[in-house]
Amino acid sequence: MNESSPSPPVATRTLVLSPVLRSAPQGPRSAEAKLEEAAGLARAIDLDIVHQEVVRLAEPRPATLLGAGAVERLGALIAERSIGLAVIDWALTPVQQRNLEKAWNCKVIDRTGLILEIFGERARTAEGKLQVELAALSYQRSRLVRSWTHLERQRGGFGFLGGPGESQLEIDRRLIGQRIAKLKKELADVKRTRSLHRRARRRVPLPVIALVGYTNAGKSTLFNALTRSAVTAKDLLFATLDPTIRVLKLPSGRNVALSDTVGFISDLPTDLVAAFRATLEEVVEADIVLHLRDVAHPDSRAQAKDVEAVLADLEADPLHGHTVIEVLNKIDLLSAEERDTVKAQIRGSGLLAVSAVTGEGLDLLLAEIDRRLAAARETRRYRLSLSDGGAIAWLYSHGTVLERHDADGFADLTVSLEAEDRARFERRQRHHA
């Protein structure tokens, strides 16, 4: 950043708070695990965490969320340590956010604001950037409250922006509304283009394998290991936001399209789930979903349940006919005893244990993908006239020809085909008969 760029002093010195209701039942995650995840989100955008703590609440206060004693104590800590930013792992109301900023004399953002900051930094594709801006503006519009004094100034109309006396609040809200409408139109155009590209890919029928998992499960590292590419792979939450697709050759020699996706996370705000649904379109289209889990993480099971819930919402789970392979990653981080225990537990379960870093178990993973794809296909034998070059070419382009014998003007073909393609081919032949 150059010296002329405006920036608040010590803006990156950060306090991270994870409020927990005393009366709330203990969920699958501990309060400390939730705090550590919030701190991980903050570190993902290079914030300097000076202090982090769990704050237990009897009940949320409408004005400040936290009780008066906690507000005062934390205010003293913020002043003493020159903290410029407080991250609250909670959905703050606009009034709570404003009151805490006044009380602490520092910038305050909630979980949604923090995730939006990360999305803003990580989005790379045109669609990703549009989705981020749309989500950010929708969130910002909800923050435009009349109690914000800088929005209360009366000013003359701008002509095309309404009549005289319109307040700055109304102007800001109208401008944001116009920008949101424009973004939605641009997104519709981008989605149409993506849909066309997807249909074109289906005409060159590569099976799609989608990598999904809780954020920081190691998807990008596995993607790189399998495809030998160089997608960003860092120990950061939300390191990947835009789907990346590469061709992967399986042991059988068959090519598939491997798709890396955005990491899932618990309690993702509803408007962000909607905004980023498009980045998960590859998952809905996938032939096989690889659900990657960080087996070394203490909350691995709870994280898996969050991912399964989103997959079910997308109708991309086993109940909706998708093949899901559960992959336990990061076994290199386990002790020898823990590794033996995990392998004993998953024996015969269909789960696989791998290390994307060392490569352990990746050969078994590729073989399992091959096996699952083959199981989803049907093997048929066809006798076709050698003069029917179109039908023979169709089988080569849509299936895998396992055997072929030519004799007496005919080709005897043994072909592995998707059930849908087998039905299409047989309808084609009846039509041409």
Tell me what the structure shows.
- By secondary structure, this protein is an alpha/beta fold.
- The protein folds into 4 domains: 13-118, Rossmann fold; 123-191, no CATH class; 206-374, P-loop containing nucleotide triphosphate hydrolases (Rossmann fold, 3-Layer(aba) Sandwich); 378-432.
- The chain has helices spanning 31-43, 68-80, 94-104, 111-122, 126-143, 168-203, 219-227, 270-275, 281-285, 300-313, 336-346, 362-375, 389-398, 419-432, and strands at residues 13-21, 48-57, 85-88, 107-110, 208-213, 244-249, 255-260, 288-294, 323-329, 352-353, 377-385, 400-407, 410-418.
- Strands 6-7-5-8-9-10 form a 6-stranded mixed β-sheet, sandwiched between helices. A 4-stranded parallel β-sheet has the order 2-1-3-4, with helices on both faces.
- The radius of gyration is 27 Å and the shape is elongated.
Summary, kept brief:
This protein has 433 residues and is α/β, with parallel strands linked by helices. It folds into four domains: 13-118, Rossmann fold, CATH 3.40.50.11060; 123-191, no CATH class; 206-374, Rossmann fold (3-Layer(aba) Sandwich); 378-432. It has helices at residues 31-43, 68-80, 94-104, 111-122, 126-143, 168-203, 219-227, 270-275, 281-285, 300-313, 336-346, 362-375, 389-398, 419-432, and strands spanning 13-21, 48-57, 85-88, 107-110, 208-213, 244-249, 255-260, 288-294, 323-329, 352-353, 377-385, 400-407, 410-418.
